[in-house]
Amino acid sequence: MELGKLPGFLARRLVKAVLVVLAIVVCNFFLVHAAPGDPASVMAGQAGAADPLFLEQLRRQFGLDQPMHVQLWIYVRSVLSLDLGFSHRQQMGVAALIAERLPATLLLTGAAFAFAVVGGVTLGALAAQRVGRWADSLITVLALTFYATPLFWVGLMLVLVFSVWLEWLPSFGMNSVGLGLTGLAHVLDVAKHLLLPALTLGLFYLAVYARLTRATMLEVQDQDFVRTARAKGVPEGRITRAHVLRNALLPVITFAGIQAGQLVGGSILVETVFAWPGIGRLAFEALLARDYPVLLGVFFCTSVIVVLFNLATDLLYALVDPRVEVA
Amino acid sequence: MTIRRRTMLAAAPALTTLAEARAQGVAPRRGGTLITMLTPEPPVLQIGVNNQGPTLVIATKMFQGLLSFSPTLEPLPVLAKSWTISPDGRVYTFRLQENVKFHDGRPMTADDVIFSITKFHPEVAPRARAIFALIDNAAAPDAHTVVFTLKQAFEPFLLMFDGSAAAIVPKHLFDGLDYRTAPAVQRPVGTGPFRFAEWQRGNFVKLDRFEDYWKPGQPYLDSIIYRVVPDSQSRRLALETGQAQLSQANDIEPFDVPALRSRPNLEVALNGWEYFSPLAWIELNHRVAPLGDPRVRQALSMAVDRNFIVQRLWFGIGRPATGPIASSSRFHDRNQRLPGFDARAANALLDAAGLRPNAQGVRFTIKHLVLPYSEIWSRLGEYLRQAFRQVGVTLELESTDAGSWARRVGNWEYDTTINFLYQFGDPTLGVERSYVTSNIQRVTFTNTGGYSNPRVDALFAAARSASVAAERQAAFSDVTKLLIDDMAQIWLMEMSFPTIHDRRLRNVVTTGLGVHSSFDDVFLTS
Amino acid sequence: MRDFWRRYRRNKGAVVGLVVLVVVIIMAATAPWLFPGSPWDMASAPFLPPGEMDMLLGTDSLGRDVAAGIAHGARVSLLVGAISTVVALSIGVTLGAIAGYLGGWVDDVVMRFTEFFQTIPSFVLAILLVAIFTPTIRSVVGAIAVVSWPPVARVVRAEFLSLRGREFVQAAEVLGKSRLSIVLGDILPNALSPIIVLASLMVASAILLESALSFLGLGDPNLMTWGFLIGSGRSVIRLAWWMSVFPGVAIFLTVLSLNLVGEGLSDALNPRLARTR
Amino acid sequence: MSLLRIEGLTVALPPGADRPHAVEDISLHVDPGEILCVVGESGSGKSITANAVMGLLPKGLPVRAGAMELLGQDLCALGPEDMRRLRGDRMAMIFQEPMTALNPLMRVGDQIAEAMRVHGRQPGGRVMELLEAVRLPDPAAIAHSHPFRLSGGQRQRVLIAMALALEPALLIADEPTTALDVTTQMSILRLIRDIQQRRGTGVLFITHDFGVVAEIADRVAVMRHGRIVEQGVAADVLNRPQHAYTRALIAAVPRGARTQAVAQTGAEMLRVTGLRKTYTRGGWFGGRVSVPAVQDANFTLARGETLGVVGESGSGKSTLARCIVKLVVPEAGEIRFDGADLRPLSRAAWKPYRSRVQMIFQDPYASLNPRRLVGDAIAEGPITHGVPRAEAMERARELLALVQLEPSAMDRYPHEFSGGQRQRIGIARALAMRPELLIADEPVSALDVSVQAQVLALLADIKARFGLTMLFITHDLRVAAQICDRVAVMQRGVIVETGPTAQVFAQPAHAYTRALLDSIPGQGWTPPV
Known about the structure:
The complex is a heterotetramer of chains A (327), B (526), C (277) and D (529). With 277 residues, chain C is mainly alpha-helical. Chain C is 76% helix and 0% strand. Chain D is of the alpha/beta class and 529 residues long. Chain D is built from 19 helices and 20 strands. Chain D has helices at 46-54, 80-86, 108-117, 126-133, 139-144, 152-164, 182-199, 210-216, 234-239, 244-252, 317-324, 347-354, 374-384, 389-402, 419-431, 449-466, 477-483, 501-506, 511-518; strands at residues 4-12, 21-30, 35-40, 63-70, 73-74, 91-94, 170-174, 202-207, 219-224, 227-233, 268-281, 289-302, 306-310, 332-337, 340-341, 357-360, 437-441, 469-474, 486-491, 494-500. The two termini of chain D are 37 Å apart. Chains in contact: A-B, A-C, A-D, B-C, C-D. Chains C and D meet through helix 7 and helix 8 of C and helix 12, strand 16 and helix 13 of D.
């Protein structure tokens, strides 16, 4: 796409993204409110004792005594003003709560994503180039293996091997608390903690990208323009890099956009296994505790991430592929 | 006073540890950071606003009550240095420590105490509301004396003054504000030996030594860090590798305890829960046929092998229940026991109740709402399903989340479930609520099962108003017998929680509140 | 048909996958005879390592036979995978067919709806649905189906869209056939290959999804599934590695075999693509 | 010395194919400055020959025997790297599909420059020169464009420019104009001719079209089933074909002029007035693009008449045909069939007309449901309209005989038939409805020339036999001339000229019609027989 058309393209995509997010907000609200069990009874249960007055107080405080459409209107209005509400259970603004947890999730999913894409595309390209040979077989088998293994199980096994038996890497948390590390030492410390969870989360998607890259590269290799390149004497290495890989990456980009949501979902499992302080675990805990504002906030936040990510991949796609005008 | 002696014996190991430490001449060492764990992460750390287990564990380091309790539940001075009770049992006079400061530097006075007891806790905590409603008048003759006059005598009144039940909060930070949303809720300010330093949600809570703490030279530790570790295996690993020096409550799964017990660097204590005395039972909804029939309840009770549960499921952490009142609690009658495990007798009882097995050998089918707090309850449900099958009863498990569990139990929408309640040292405080007719309410932790017996109601009422311990003992013994005969609920076990700590950490469990004490005397040897 | 087998056999992995899958299915079918009684029965002492006291794969924390659990679990895992796939297929094929065949604004609406479902992180949605409707086999199957249909709808739509423009469909149109008979008689049979391939992969991912739900404690508590076994073995992994390792291997093998079979089907049903392998 | 010499070349097919060798014992040569046309039907092995020379044979097709020499150098003895060095430098190739033969992500100029860079030459200003040499307008803009912005003809010019970048001695052109419209085809043919003459390049030109051969060839080699059956100077082969196969091929070439007189015209059957169809694409959020496919089309069709609609791709002729059978819903106009306006009718109201108006399609491979038995495919129309199954099957059997297929074809699937046979099945399916109006949408354009002739003959036969009225869509003027009573010429959605075939061909009124007629390849050649 030509750069001059970019602002219009972006504006259209943004409008669409906002509409999608709005729909998600409304749907999530109804979904979560369809759940039995209201936050007041949960809090009462966890306080260890309760009486009807206490319950009544809590319900009023949470606005649970209002009619549903009023609750929805209040929620949508506040989301539009970027106020995600207040978690009465946590006694904190939801936005603040999520903001605290978000960096950890972004770090984890970002690292896993980078690992998966870079590793997957490299392995996939390698396999496609050596199709039918042992390297291809090995990569294919490995990819299938990671593809077929439950994510959380991989996490458990990695912990078993690297933390329990070898004692090389920490098995949980995001940093060593109490050591007062700063600067580079802190970064290294976090990196050490990040390694296993990112690996766990990334392996499955690495397999996905490896398989996808291999398949699309094989497909692109058969296309006419590759034959043209060959006919004009372009060396094989350059054909792979400049012609095949670039075209094969287009579906990978599309797929990465779709995968963003799955990655956030997968991080719930990984964050649970590795005690990673991110929003995936926050969501699961909020669900168990029926903390509606937090749950709605996390859903809102993840869908915004996914929508933004889709937007970014669309943009990337549009920049890579000149054929995209509007779609 | 047989009860007292029993609990004293039970608490003996803790006392020996302390004595040993002193005897070995290990002088308390100042300095060091204690890293411990936390699960689940509490929503807020302001005691009262939230009274969940994890909140109590942290908040009791920052807040203190007037009293604490020994393993035999004798009152110990904390913020109150002495107290007197009038002969008619209605007037309680506390003399306060004089140089106590809040973490913000303001002195603690009788005003703060009266505010905490008569305003703050009754507003935010239902349990305090019920009992402090008995206070007719609260007065402060001087800045360091508080006098509470009760409407009627209430023998267990002192038990309410522990830091976990009625911590003293700063009046100047709450008065006139909504207590639940006051700024101080986010940065708790108390009188305890440690003050709030940092909370990275999902990661850790850090408490630092309060330099102006009223006990000179104490506390010994520089800081305490509570790491949030949601996975039990990670917690175990943290203990083993020394990344954490202390675990408490249900941090460590029972099946991991034997392995940890054998580690030379770790010490496992099972005491320190005398004040709470949690008791677990199968909660039956008496409104659901045929659970309203006492013979059926008796039969189900006999179908359960409590020793198996304690040994196999809890790996010996805990004791089989003997009745509605825990054996570590006051007024437990050790002469009364539950009928033993006897499947044959159970079958006979069910036959007698007219519940004949059908062609598949099934007498009736009931549901079981699995307690969602830890997966051990799922194992228990799976055991119960197999156990009840032996007597022709099919148990269908329903799994649920904490929210639904609380709602369904509160609304009586269940057949059976597991419930466990703290007894707070005294049956009037912790047992009565589950059996009296007046407390049949659509709220969790009331008499949700719907058991009702006028004689039981009368006996609990008598025990409540009697001011003499012996009179109360008699009433509780009678109530115990009635409840066991009716098998009001199927009591399973007296729960214990292992407190596991590094051997270099000293004075961890010294009172009946265990890890819920202030830790001002806890220290790390080098 | 013979052609189909010939092409299928060319992919050795697919043959291995089929053999493994058949073994798993046989194991599931014969579980009541291989391991009579309930898999929940306490068969021996708890935490027996594999091989001890006749317990081939060891016992769990209540002394239950892990091997019996895996055999009986195969029934449920496969059933959950199959049923949720059927449900997801029926949702996805219906919506995809409507969108692809009718086109226009209907297509637009259906595809926005599908996109919307794809935007919500599917695993989070599955957790939410199971929690809302309480964990039972029905809610688990339903939740898996609800999060798995969008790819089916997209594939079916794309197939229908391209087939709709194909001349034989236009010919049927010109012959005056009814829409339903065109969709069922002319388009659907020709769109079956990708649907079948997709279905085999969906069974695999449904099994994975079920195990993940159970791992988080959101499985049906009355049914022995592989996910449940790992979930219950996870907390004792250092005490009894066999409790989570063997069910994990069972899941891995089954999912792998389904993937291999899917590839084989894809090769056999789309011979044009197979040549590039 | 010959530029390219091939002796006894044999290329194997993978096991399981319908014959053991793709090409067998081929010998030919190309001299500098000459165009050798290799002509043959699909599957004759002509493309394999070209790819063998370039060293671009797929893995499954090894060279089994023979020798290939380029400028005296033995190609079979060269390693892959040496072959690569030759490709693009001493020999270059252009392909059939200009739409897909360029990397969609790379600018045109860069792709041409790449052809030089990989051989160690700096492009400099040469890219512009080349683009100018292939007569592309505004070379600077084109060099900067991505391929999707160019038309098919422009792309083919780019590919030719790329092939000529290093002034190769040999240019191999593999059906370079087959995918192009006639007018474009002619200009590309002239370009190749011109370049070859100016630079003295030797050209190996592969085609299936004798018109093209007549237009461009110096010498001709005719291939069939992997063998060369006849080879010689163009004029000799074209006018005095020796081999029976060559004669058959040439006989099948559509005659330029209609032989029989204009058929008697009956009453008006179809009257189309003001028909309009516009395609729009784009989403809910802006970016809507409208493409007028048919604008204000007016024509009539009398009973028993054949009206040809001719035009290049994208002219809207297919859309027009589809509008009449409601496969495409036009937004305005009238379609009066026997007086009744069909356009506003609902699906149900249309149904009675389905048996009266039928259609046959272009692609014999796509027009039959691959999962339905041939008998059922033919019978399902009548069955849908209430004919008892047994009767419908009987009718299907009769029709199969009519289209010269075995009765056993009833119980077989379409993939067991050749393209020509499938087209016959498609015709039988349409006839089964006993239609009055038959719409034929490019019914022969996907067929080899010999098969094309047979199908055209069949169509003429059944038309006469059943007194059918026909609307015949084609891009091939020669075909239209052969079969139509009247023709309508379409350009960009507009019917620019209508009239009796002979008149339109002899005195075209519209400039576009004239351009089309001028572009018919091989006009100077009248096929013998």
